Amino acid sequence: MWHNRPMNGLGKIIQFSKPFHKLLVIISLLILFNAAITLVTPFLTKNVIDNIHDPKILATNIIYIFLVSIFGVFITSISNKLGDTLSAKLTVYLTDQFYSHTLKLSQEYFDSKMSGKIANQLKRGILSIGEFVGAATNFILPSIMQTIFTIGALTYQNRLIGLLAFILFPIYIYISHRSTKLWAKSETKKNKLDDEYTSRIVEALQNMKLIKVTSSQKDEMEYIDERLSNYRQIYAKQSTQYHLINTGRNIILEGVMIVIIIIALTQVTTGVLTLGALVMIIQLLSLLRRPLFSMSFMLERVQRANTGAKEYFDIINLPTNETIADSRIKPLYSNPTINLKQVSFSLNQKSIINNASLTIKPGENVAIIGPSGAGKTTLVNLMLRLYEPTKGYLSLDDKKYTDLTYQQTRSHFAYVFQDNELFSTTVKENVSYGQKSLSTKIINEALKNAHAYDFVMAMPDKINSQIGERGIKLSGGQKQRLQIARALANPAPILILDEATSSLDAKSESLIQQALLSATKTKTVIIIAHRFSTLQNVDRIIVIDKGKIVDQGSPATLAAKPGIFKELLQYQIQGNQKLLAKYDIIE
In the CATH scheme, what is the code of domain 2-316? Predict the structure, then answer.
């Protein structure tokens, strides 16, 4: 694979952007042609001055100078326009490739990374690459080609002057290279701080209620201010180093330029060079000043693009097993049996699920219970194939997960997560997420079954109402009911409810339990719950503790024997009895 070959960031960018190679070649040829015709004007000027007393030659050369200049303007405009087009297309392409690749990464990656940092790396990487391509096509490549042709022209005119001009470049490149290396070290430190405070700002915006109710605004400002202060200090040092080196570099440039002009003037007085040749040499030296003065800019852009490309390809090169389906895949089985065979799972070298074997039959209503941190949600995430088992395997009927695509596996599941998994769009688009073709009738039916229909109809635009970022315009219970509606609208044969009614009041929970019981008669239902009111209608309870399945059976069977289920049940009953007694509802 190309990304396994040892090459720098720019090499990877060039190879990765293969769809735009033809456009890049066209731009390069235009730049090459423009660099060549730029040298025509100094030669024509020499001819004008050396034949100043010949009106015919004078007029002809002036016309040629005008035509060459106009032609050069057109070529520059075209190449710059194509360069901007290439930069824009490459930016879109790289963004699309990044997002596509990110969507195929394992859930484990997102569990260990901050979303703000990922977004910041994308922004910085794409921006630096896009800026480099724009600068390369509009400035860097033209400067390089112009430099090569100009030194060639100076050498052709006078070898000593050509040699002195040539010597300037390795000296200048070396000094600029050292300067940009120092700049890059500081840039890496700044990028780290940038990731930290950007991620924190994103987290703060998502947890604004917590910040306000705990009066932590000052703490948040201090956290950000500390990193911004460090960022400013690094930048100040970076800027000082740059300007000191730049001053020394430009003194060297001016010194060599003066030496060249003195040599040229001396040769004019001795008759070695004509006055026209002197003017031409001065013009050619003027052409050299631009790339020399801009050497640090060019190398800085190269360095920044390399750094941005590294961050970009650090993510692009992460292995993925998933693919993106062209369309939604229908379930392979109408009523599959779920099997877990000696499944173990470890995350960050910590064992979470240990040798779990389990069979869930079609149409069965199963609950998974256990203490907090026992591994209940992880077990369900393995069923959803958000994680891959470290050992053992899972299957639908007799088909192992590894023999199915991720989409084929997940098409059998509808689910309600414990967290609010909603988008900042309309009620309709949230309920139909993943199933764009759902009719309004089905959406309304799902809303009714989830007891969300009434509050949705009370909203200004009904099912077309915007709910805000992560459903911020809704209450906790309303958010959860929308998620339940989304799951009920899904025709998948298996429904997973991870604390699906935890944000609801007792009455709403009871109503939704009845609705779920009615709506899921043809589905296999898997429930994760702490509240035992959720377990009234289950066929079987699976007890998990410290990553192990320690017991299973009907609620009546487990309640009649010692174990975690009975212990948790007694705690809840005792709590309810104390509450009832407190208000003299029972003796």
Answer: 1.20.1560.10
